[in-house]
Structures are given as C-alpha cells and as structure tokens.
Amino acid sequence: MTMRAPITDLPIRFENVTVAAGAVTILDRIVLTLNPGPPTVLVGPNGSGKSTLLRAAMGLATPSQGHISWGGREDAHPTRRAIVFQRPVMFRRSVGGNVRYALRASGVARAEQNRRIDDLLALVGLEQLADRPARRLSGGEQQRLALARALAREPEILLLDEPTASLDPAATKAIEDIIRAVSQRGIKVVMATHDLGEARRLGGEIVLLHRGRAIESGPASSFFNTPRSGEARTFLAGELLV
Fold it and tell me: What percent of the chain is helix, strand and coil (3-state, nearest 5)?
C-alpha cells in the first residue's frame, strides 16, 4: 500500500504576478517564493503592496497577470492557510465562543472542542478571559483572540497584516511572543509590518516592497547589514522612498 504524501501549500510561488484595480497597478510583476522556515517579513512604505501580497498569498486577490501556486497547485482553495487582518472583526459572543465558532467551521468534533479552546486560549494568554464578551477586550487582546481563531484551523501558513499596528509596547511584545511560539511549532509565518525594529526581531527573511514591486528579498541579517539596493539603503536610513 502506497502512502500518499500530505497536501502542502508550501512553497507559495509568485511568478510575474501583477494585481491591478482598474487602471491602478497594486502589485507589479512580483517574482517571489515563500518557503518553509522562519518568518518572512514584508516591509515597505504605506501603499507599497504589502497587504495585497498577503491577500494574494491567501487566494483572496486574483492576479491580473502571472500565476501563484501553492505546493505546486494553482487552485486557490486555502487548504492549509489562515489570515489575520489588521483590524479583525469580533463575533458577538464570548472569547471562548469566538474560538468555538472557528473550530466548528473547521469541522472539529464537538468532543474535541473544549480541549482545543483551552489550548488555544492558553497559547495566546487569554485563558482567564474565556467568558468575557469578545467586543469588550482591549485592542491587543482582540488581536490575540484573532490569532487563536486563525490557529483553530491548524494552518501550515499564517498570514498576518500589521498585527501590532497601533498597539502599545506591552501588547506588541505579547503578539510578538505568540508569533515566535507559532513559528517554533513549524507554522510558516508571513507578516507585514511598518516597524523595522519588529522586522529585525522576528524576521528570518525580509522582502522590501515599493510601488508594488519586490525590490529586494533575502536573509534578515543580509538585508539589515549589507542591503543590495539603493531603495533598501534609503528605507533603512529612515528616508522617504519616492
């Protein structure tokens, strides 16, 4: 009996991918491969295409030109991936109820749900708030709950759109700690951030986007210490990219 290899969504390959909205080009001929391993962090000025690249990796933005493949397949069904947006919506139910909803949607058996809720809330540090209405959580707590909901799907790839934007330092550290823990479990994290300090702390690979183009990509140490492109040097110096 031949064992069939489990379906994987990695690597995600962008082959000359352009995404346009009307006459506006949002992503411009992106060539990029997202491989298993430590987090890939997308950096670049506002409007550079970071959020759209994440949406395209999830299968939510359709290329106008080019192709995206997931583990060699071009069907966009998100078998093993999840996304958390910058401003996640909280369902009108308790913290635990939000996670239960995600588990139910993922087909987790009722008998397993309570254990999984406990495990997921412990991972994000919300186990003491399981009965609190989700909409009464602070911004940082809501973002942690959104991470728990995404992880309920047992994703292979977790896509995060500026998960610490507008959070205070303590809330930011809590989110970063969760991202490290998730990555150590073997989940591929791809995240966008406007915070270069965060990119240094979390990134294994950095991708610099500007005007919808992938200007430079490579190991974080090389990007920060010996950037190859003029745009990267300008961006790292804190100057405006135009």
Answer: 35, 25, 40
- What CATH number should be reported for the domain holding residue 46? 3.40.50.300
Any domain includes 166: yes
Comparing C-alpha atoms, which of 228, 57, 32 is closest to residue 156? 57
Find the domain containing 226 and state its range.
12-90+154-236
Encoding tokens for residue 50? 């970071």
Q: State how far the Cα of 208 lies from the Cα of 229, in Å rounded to an integer.
A: 10
Specify if 37 maps to a domain: yes
Q: Is residue 137, in this structure, part of any structural domain at all? A: no
Judge whether 120 lies within some domain.
no
**How many separate domains does the chain show?**
1
pLDDT tens, per residue, the chain with 242 residues: 444 556 799 999 999 999 999 999 999 999 999 999 999 999 999 999 999 999 999 999 999 999 999 999 998 788 789 999 988 999 999 999 999 999 999 999 999 999 999 999 999 999 999 999 999 999 999 999 999 999 999 999 999 999 999 899 999 999 999 999 999 999 999 999 999 999 999 999 999 999 999 999 999 999 999 999 999 999 999 988 87
